[in-house]
Design goal:
Elements: H1 2-20, E1 22-25, E2 28-36, E3 44-53, E4 59-65, E5 71-79, E6 85-90, E7 93-95, E8 100-103, E9 108-113, E10 125-132, E11 136-145
Parallel strand pairs: 2-11
Antiparallel strand pairs: 1-2, 2-3, 3-8, 3-9, 4-7, 4-10, 5-6, 5-9, 10-11
């Protein structure tokens, strides 16, 4: 009986932890918002998540705001035929009706900028507000996780052209 009770408690705790990373607002589900830890001198960090639109109406993520971060933008990373990656600022991210959009390394992502010597540290949570065109505002926490080579989407930041992004001098954080 004790083992059954322990198993039930463990299941409830696990379920609560799993749901703590997921957010829902008017048919929009945001799953596992996260960011990777950054180097101490990094001036930027990326944010990632999965957005599900369970409605029959298209939605658009208009912006992300974070009180503790001076500048936050939506970006798309693209690699040209020469293998040079560029980040392109997005004026929103479309989430079609009934579709799922993944923000991930090497693709669409949130760019937290002007960190000013305050790196993302393992285990911390970055409080942010996602602003959707129809659903409105959703407050989420981007959980900071450890980075591995596989998590970086194979992107070589040493070849990335940041000159048009206003990042200033960037140092490679990998």
């Amino acid at each position: 009986m004790k083992n059954l009770i322990k198993a039930a408690v463990a299941t409830l705790l696990f379920a609560g932890a799993a749901h703590a990373e997921d957010y829902t607002l008017d048919g929009i589900n945001v799953l596992k918002p996260m960011a990777f830890e950054t180097a101490k001198n990094a001036n930027v960090g990326g944010g990632y998540m999965t957005i599900e639109n369970t409605t029959n109406k298209a939605e658009k993520l208009l912006e992300v705001r974070a009180e503790a971060i001076p500048r936050v933008e939506l970006h798309l990373s693209e690699t040209d035929e020469n293998g040079v990656a560029r980040m392109i600022k997005q004026e929103g991210i479309e989430i079609p009706a009934g579709e799922t959009v993944m923000l991930q390394p090497g693709g669409l992502h949130v760019m937290f900028m002007e960190l000013g010597g305050d790196p993302f540290e393992l285990g911390e949570a970055l409080n942010a507000t996602l602003v959707f065109e129809n659903a409105g505002e959703m407050v989420v926490d981007f959980k900071v996780e450890a980075r591995s080579a596989a998590d970086h989407g194979g992107m070589d930041h040493s070849k990335m052209d940041h000159s048009k992004m206003g990042h200033g001098d960037m140092e490679k954080s990998d």
